[in-house]
Amino acid sequence: MDPSNIMPALNAVQLEVIRNALVCVAEEMSVTIWRTSRSPVVREILDYSCAVFDANGDSTAQAARQPVHLNSMASGLRSILDGPFPLDSWEQGDLIITNDPYAGGQHLPDILAFRPVFMGATRIGFVGALVHHLDVGGGAPGSYDANATEIHQEGFRIPPMKLDKSGVRNREVIELLLRNSREPVLVGGDFASQLAALKIGEASLGAIGQRYGAATLAEACALIQGQSEAAMRAIIRGIPDGDYEFEDFVDDDGIDLGRPIRIHVALTIRKDTVSFDFSGSSPQVKGPVNCTFNMTDSAVVCGTLMAVGSDVPANAGCYRPIAIHAPEGLCVNARSPAPVANRMAVGHRVVNAVMGAFAQALPARIPASYYGVSYVYAFNAVHADGARQVYFDLECGGWGGHPDSDGANAFCCGFHNNSNAPIEMIENGYPVTFVRYALVPNSGGAGIHRGGLGLIREFRIDAPTGTISANLDRFTHPPYGLQGGAPGAGGQLSIHRAASGKTEILPSKISGIEVAAGDVFRLQTSGGGGWGDPARRDPQAHATDLRLGYVTNRAE
User: Fold this and answer.
1) CA-CA distance, 311 to 328, in Å (whole number)?
2) Which of 521, 413, 493, 495 is nearest to 251 (CA)?
3) Does the bond joining 86 to the residue before it have cis omega, within 30 degrees of 0?
4) Are 156 and 107 in contact (CB under 8 A)?
5) Residue 537, Cα to own-chain centre: how many angstroms?
């Protein structure tokens, strides 16, 4: 079919067919990664995302994976197109990758990959996949070094570059990546899975182009984005105009212990636009909790979509009514070479602050704070023969009480939207034995609607030796309550030493803590904040409260 083929103007049915076809392209890529990946962080936790972009590089469709990735993939591709690889420099068979947070990425374990899709000489779109890779080097297993003070300590850094040029692959780049990884077999398998997904996406998007023609596909993409923009503007018009503000705090950066990091947002709503000003936030910090602007952009979009509570298809259109001001040099827009491995600490807090600001405008619609942190930890096991393994995992906590219901217990969705790694699978592959995995009694904030419960994940070390690293938060600044609700309980971290029989209480951010066989690692995650005055809680809920361990009122 001639790429310039033009069908008659699209009607509503045709447009919806094409919209769903494009979503299917992203979902097909997502299933490819899920079914062929090797490491638990990709195969079980599902820490990856896929999306489809139009011929200009604007996002059009995405798979149901992680907002933290999907929103930033759009700005990541735009950074590449506006920087080293403008649109006219892409050729058929090219594949561009990067993990550089200062060139469109988020942090070094997340490798972005984009492939253009052509019909003859006409570019009809791009397909993209972002995968969190188990280990890309640096000062700690899993590449989350809580002691890092510059990005050069965090792992293997890839500037935007053509891994494939006109179909010819530069395999030396892959060898460099794997040589710098503690888990080259698993990372190599996951990277191959990521690249295979792009080939699947290229073929599927190409088939849609062949069916409808390049011009019709371009028209459909513009209409799809236009519909999202119109829907978003209509929702914003339903929010009272005004100036609102909110602030929340990260415990610390892991270097200057006990020094909180302020995330302050001023929200302005005018007619059908919304703007966010983060000028009141703390300067960038020494430790690796900083965000680049792309990351903050992603968090703002996620927090906005969560707050408005409507099913607006996420694409370039729904981003257009949103403006963000975050001066360079702040923790929400750090300058290179600031470390960013645990950027989710600030990123989650941006989401929390954005939702808190919307709660001033929509007090009867916004829930209290969810747990607000990716509870990331890694165990570097050293076996008797000297062989090493990296067990990487992350956990969630409780969700905030809602104006209409209690918060969900130990539930992961929203900004990072990960899945649970089954403990049976972990025990089968790593030298650990789980001794406890349960909800934390009484950890949700009290309220008319209580916050959800956090969880406990506790395992024994079965390898002779090893080290533990963790990048956590919400230990000293727990998830906030709203409308008189109490905050949730904070997190805790400890190691029980088999040799001494003593328990060591640890800070929220650690790196290289030595462990030995028999030691027990214990993580307790935070509960969600409560919503509304606890004294007005329905007495009928008492039986449920007792069953879930609410033996006291956290507001007292």
Assistant:
1) 32
2) 493
3) no
4) no
5) 34
Residue 547 CB burial class (10 angstroms; 0-12, 13-18, ≥19):
exposed
Over the stretch 30-89, which tens digit does the pLDDT of each residue have? 999 999 999 999 999 999 999 999 999 999 999 877 777 777 888 899 999 999 999 999
pTM, two decimals, is 0.94
Residue with tokens 């409808």: 212
Least Cα distance to 111 among 150, 139, 141, 72 occurs for 72
Helix axes 184-212, 171-179, angle to 10 degrees: 140
Containing 196, the helix (H) or strand (E) segment is helix 184-212
Q: What tokens appear for 275 in the block?
A: 């703007």
Report d(CA 92, CA 87) in Å as an integer.
12
Cβ-in-10-Å burial (0-12, 13-18, 19+) of 507 comes to middle
Q: CA-CA-CA-CA torsion for 146, 149, 153, 159, nearest 10 degrees?
A: 110
Distance, CA of 330 to CA of 263 (rounded, Å): 10
Distance CA 16, CA 9 (A): 13
pLDDT tens for 273-315 read: 999 999 999 999 999 999 999 999 999 999 999 998 777 888 9
Percent helix, strand, coil in the chain, to 5, is 30, 25, 45
Can you count the helices (H) and strands (E) in the chain? 11, 20
Separation CA 20–CA 514 (nearest Å): 50
Assign 286 to helix, strand or coil: coil
